[in-house]
Amino acid sequence: MSKRDDILNLVLNGESPGYVPAAFFLHFPEEFKGGQAAADKHMEFFRHTGMDFLKIQFERPFPPVESLKDPEDWTNHPFYDRDYYQDQIEAVTELVEAADGQVLTIVTLYSAFMCSVRAAGKEVVARHLLENPEAYCKGLEIITESLLVFVNACIDAGVDGFYASTQGREDFRFKNKKLFDDYIKPYDLLMWEKLDANCDFNILHVCDYHGKYADISPFAEYPGDLVNAPLDLTTGPITAAEIHSIFKRPLLGGLDRMGVIVDGPEEAIQKAVYDTLDANPQISVLGADCTLPSDINWDHIKAAIDAAHSYER
Q1: Given a cut of 90, is residue 313 above it in pLDDT?
Q2: Is 204 in a helix, a strand, or coil?
Q3: Cα 160 to chain center, whole Å?
Q4: What DSSP character marks residue 219?
Q5: H/E element holding 301?
Q6: CATH class of segment(s) 3-310
Q7: pLDDT tens by residue, 63-90
Q8: What are 140-169's pLDDT values in tens digits?
Q9: Which of 9, 95, 146, 281 is deepest in the core (most CB within 10 A)?
Q10: How far apart are CA 136 and CA 228, in angstroms?
């Protein structure tokens, strides 16, 4: 069977392929952000590391919009059409063709909230949410419609699904968590309706890149066939068993993105993988809790993936 079949059977049907699949992700240098250059670099990374699915980075974050001074200004947030995403769509199309149905192709997708923060900055977004959340949500509507242009193009290109990343409920952002629940989460779920209805395989990523969460249970109702969640909360470490009890789905993760996989040596990486899988049988696909540093030694990633493949459960 193909790697694609192995992971689909494992995650969707609970059938072990006889090894632990693994996948890790990173951003490539600026010259490899779009088009054929991006496609080639993704395939080089995929082949070098031996990972088990092809995760395609999203390299078109929304640019700053200086005019977003007041909440009402979100009504005029720019709408980015297909031309804005074209170099990303070209890379996705090339990679789907290169995968040839043998491996899962998963496209990274940022949430509308994440894009709004890139557009206005976290302080402005927080202030506007407090002052006039309904006006701010006009911007989320525009951003969501724009992201759907990209999503639809990727679906038309034949991707298997998306690695959909969410932020906004980190402990540092809002004292009143209902701001997330009432005004941000609905746009997350609106996008998830599209992904869930049109794709065979999606991954939910609860992203703690900018800060820790006190509680990740509010994301439990989000769809997603595989869950990638933080290993550490404001209250301390959280186990794979605890994450699994919240989401009740197969897990992707296990390794700290800034831990031994970065520093090595390879023998220590192998030991960390074995220890992690011994202690966390709930992990279906070995990975990190988020994106790895861009300057990491690819051989360290290969060592982690080789260790997962050789691990006997």
Answers
A1: no
A2: strand
A3: 14
A4: G
A5: helix 298-310
A6: alpha beta
A7: 999 999 999 999 999 999 999 999 999 9
A8: 999 999 999 999 999 999 999 999 999 999
A9: 95
A10: 28
The CA-atom distances, in angstroms, between 40 and each of 54, 94, 158, 309 are 12, 9, 18, 25
Structure tokens belonging to residue 89: 């769509």
C-alpha distance from residue 140 to each of 67, 145, 146, 191, 195 (Å): 16, 9, 10, 11, 18
One-letter amino acid of 248: K
| CA 303 – CA 208 distance, rounded (Å) | 25
Question: Cβ neighbours of residue 125 under 8 Å, at least 6 residues apart?
Answer: 113, 116, 117, 136
Closest CA to 133 of 88, 186, 96: 186
Residue 61 binned pLDDT confidence (cut-offs 50, 70, 90): confident
Domain boundaries, the chain: 3-310
CA distance 180 to 173: 9
Report the C-alpha gap between 200 and 219 in whole angstroms.
Answer: 20
